[in-house]
Design goal:
Blueprint: H1 2-23, H2 25-40, H3 47-72, H4 80-94, H5 114-136, H6 142-161, H7 176-183, E1 185-186, E2 189-190, H8 191-209, H9 211-221, H10 223-228, H11 233-259, H12 270-280, H13 292-311, H14 316-341
Antiparallel strand pairs: 1-2
Length: 342
C-alpha cells in the first residue's frame, strides 16, 4: 500500500512539474538567455542598465496595456503601432518651442506641455472608436478591420507629416517641459516610468475592482453568454477599443518625448511587440484571460532580451529572428493550453 502511495505521489509530482514547465516554458527560456547575457557581460546587471530598460519599456508598457484590453475581450488589434506613430507626430508638431527655426505650425503660440499630450490621446480615442464601430457594428473581423485602419492611419500620418513647411523633416525642437517628460525624473525615478506605473494601477483597478472589468472578461470568455446575461456587448467592444486607442495616443506622445523627435515611421511593429508581450504574459488569443502583472512581466522580459542582445553586440537582424520564434512559440503554447482545457 505504501509503495503504491509513493508511486502515485511521484506520478503527481511529475505531472505537476510537466504542467509547470509547459505553463512557464517561455519564461524559463528567456531567463536562461538573460543569465547567459549576464555571464558574458556582468555589467548588464547594473542599476544604470535597469534604469535604461525601464525607461525603454515605459512606452511599450502603455501600448501593451491597451492591447491587453482587446485580447481579454476576445478581439484583436493590428492598428496600435500606426496609431502610436500618428499620435507621436501630432504631439511633436504641437510641442515645438516658439524659437525653433523649423516649426511645424509657425504661427502657433507655444503650448503648455499638457495640450499636445491631450491632443494625442484624443486622436487615439477617436480612431479607437472607429475600430470599435467597424468590429461591433459593421461586423468586420477584428484582424481585417484593424489592419485596414492601420493602413488609413499610416496614410493620414504621411499626409500630415508631409505638410509644408515641414515637408517630411523629422520633428524636433520641443519645449523644455515636454522634453523633460522623456528625460526628467522625480526622486531618481524617470517620469516616463512614473506615467506607465500610473497607467498600470489604473488598468489594474478597472479590470479587477469594477463591474465594467468583470463584464470585459465575461465578453471575452463567451460573448453570447454575456449578451444573454444582460451585458451590452456592443458598448463593451466600443469601450475597449476606445480606451486602447487612448493608451496608444498616450504612448505616442511619450515616445516623442523620450526620443526628442518624431517621424512618420514611429510605432512600426509596436502592435506585434504588444501582442507578443501580452501572450507571453498570460493573455489568451481566445479571450477572457489576462492580468496586468503578467503583461508587465512580458514587456520587461522582451525588453531585457532585446537590450541584452544589443548590449553584447548581437545584430538586430538576429533579434528579429529570435523575437519571431518567441511569438510563434507563445501562440503554440496558448493553443495547447486551450486545447487541454477543452
Amino acid at each position: 500500500m505504501r509503495k503504491r502511495t509513493n508511486t502515485s505521489i511521484s506520478e503527481r509530482s511529475k505531472v505537476n512539474l510537466k504542467n509547470f514547465i509547459t505553463q512557464n516554458a517561455l519564461f524559463i527560456i528567456m531567463f536562461g538567455i538573460i543569465i547567459i547575457i549576464a555571464i558574458i557581460s556582468p555589467n548588464f546587471l547594473s542599476l544604470q542598465v535597469l534604469r535604461d530598460i525601464l525607461t525603454q519599456s515605459s512606452v511599450k508598457f502603455v501600448v501593451a496595456l491597451g492591447c491587453m484590453f482587446i485580447l481579454i475581450a476576445g478581439s484583436a488589434d493590428l492598428s496600435g503601432g500606426r496609431m502610436v506613430g500618428l499620435t507621436a507626430v501630432i504631439a511633436g508638431s504641437l510641442a515645438q518651442a516658439s524659437t525653433y527655426s523649423h516649426k511645424f505650425f509657425p504661427d502657433l503660440p507655444e503650448l503648455f506641455f499638457v495640450f499636445p499630450i491631450l491632443a494625442a490621446i484624443g486622436v487615439g480615442l477617436v480612431f479607437g472608436l472607429v475600430n470599435g464601430f467597424a468590429v461591433s457594428v459593421l461586423k468586420v473581423p477584428a484582424f481585417l478591420a484593424t489592419l485596414g485602419i492601420s493602413m488609413i492611419l499610416y496614410g493620414i500620418n504621411l499626409l500630415y507629416f508631409n505638410l509644408p513647411p515641414n515637408n517630411a523633416q523629422p520633428l524636433g525642437g520641443f519645449t523644455k517641459d515636454f522634453a523633460n517628460i522623456g528625460t526628467g525624473d522625480i526622486f531618481g525615478i524617470p517620469i516616463l516610468v512614473i506615467i506607465s506605473v500610473g497607467c498600470m494601477i489604473f488598468v489594474y483597478i478597472l479590470l479587477t475592482k469594477t463591474t465594467l472589468g468583470k463584464e470585459i472578461y465575461a465578453v471575452g470568455g463567451n460573448a453570447e453568454a454575456a449578451r444573454v446575461s444582460g451585458i451590452n456587448v456592443f458598448k463593451i467592444l466600443l469601450f475597449i477599443f476606445a480606451i486602447a486607442g487612448a493608451l496608444y495616443g498616450l504612448g505616442g506622445s511619450m515616445e516623442a518625448a523620450r526620443t526628442g523627435s518624431a517621424t512618420s515611421n514611429y510605432g512600426n511593429s509596436y502592435e506585434l511587440d504588444a501582442i507578443a508581450s501580452c501572450i507571453v504574459g498570460g493573455c489568451s488569443l481566445s479571450g477572457g484571460v489576462g492580468t496586468v502583472p503578467g503583461v508587465v512581466l512580458g514587456v520587461i522580459v522582451f525588453t531585457v532580451i532585446n537590450y541584452g542582445l544589443t548590449f553584447i553586440g548581437i545584430s538586430t537582424n538576429y533579434q528579429y529572428i529570435i523575437k519571431g520564434l518567441i511569438i510563434i512559440f507563445a501562440i503554440a503554447l496558448d493553443v495547447r493550453k486551450n486545447f487541454t482545457k477543452k
